[in-house]
Amino acid sequence: MILKDFKFRFQSFIGSGFFTGYFPFAPATVTSIFTLVPAFFLARQPVLALCIIIGVFFIGVWLATDLEKVWGKDPHRVTIDEIAGTLITFFYNPVSILGLIAGFLLWRGFDILKLPFIDRVQRLNGGWGVMLDDVLAGICANIVLRIIILIFPPLRGGSAL
Asked: Is 0.70 topped by the overall pTM?
């Protein structure tokens, strides 16, 4: 019983984005805001960032699958998917502070609006649907941010290498 309780608490802690998913309003946005700091620095470390993104993704699939059994389909408390999406938005995309704000707004926009192909992926069972829709939203935000940086260079930060 104690180990089962510990497992659930551990899964809740990580799966909820270190308890940011328990925030009373806009927990996904709150988790994304807290993820901006590591995303900003990881954008300059693409190998490390990729390893972390892959790890967060697979841990997120596992945790979201288990937590859905307790909290229901795609629960708002599960925000590890927002961590993945935010990190992907800035992957190999070093930005200035202004670029960080632009990337954040793009990321939240793609995540909230759910383009049709992203919405379809969200319907996958278990943690796959929870995680993959945010991965795709993050990829879309990353691509659009890259294009905007080409047009408006002040959004770009230091070198990624």
From this structure: yes
